[in-house]
Amino acid sequence: MERTLVLIKPDGVRRNLIGEIIRRYEMKGLRVIAIKSLYPSEELVMEHYKEHEGKDFYERLINFLTSGMVIAIVLEGKNAIKCARIINGATKYQDALPGTIRGDFAFDETENLVHASDSLESAEREMKIWFSEIY
Ligand code: CMP
């Protein structure tokens, strides 16, 4: 069993897509083992996205993630890291296939509804950032 960190970003919350998004992970057999809603601080979001510091979209990304409520989720299941990313679809909305969350609902490069850890190391690091009370 593997664990991964998923975020439903402020656009997903604003657009009332929380249930729809979680349903898709659960349908694939991924189990929600921790979940919370929060208004993340700039510090938390900067730590989460520190690999993107200096990129042209970084400031926009930090402003977006701190613009509203975020749902942080730990999913557990077989190949959870890969499965969650496949369910999310390609980062760029224009490359995301129909049937994926971004393929079906996203139309902006920054506001792309969801995040999921991209490796075992990222999952460990990100679960500690968003669920410091547990990990
Ligand atoms: P995520 O999968 O959370 O990883 C980094 C985030 O940065 C990404 O989703 C988008 O929200 C954002 N992002 C990545 N590339 C771009 C880009 N070229 N322009 C704007 N935002 C981007």
TrEMBL record:
GO terms for biological process: CTP biosynthetic process; GTP biosynthetic process; UTP biosynthetic process. Major role in the synthesis of nucleoside triphosphates other than ATP. The ATP gamma phosphate is transferred to the NDP beta phosphate via a ping-pong mechanism, using a phosphorylated active-site intermediate. It comes from Caloramator australicus RC3. Its cofactor is Mg(2+). SUPFAM superfamilies: Nucleoside diphosphate kinase, NDK. The lineage of its organism: Bacteria, Bacillati, Bacillota, Clostridia, Eubacteriales. This is Nucleoside diphosphate kinase. Its EC number is 2.7.4.6. Belongs to the NDK family.
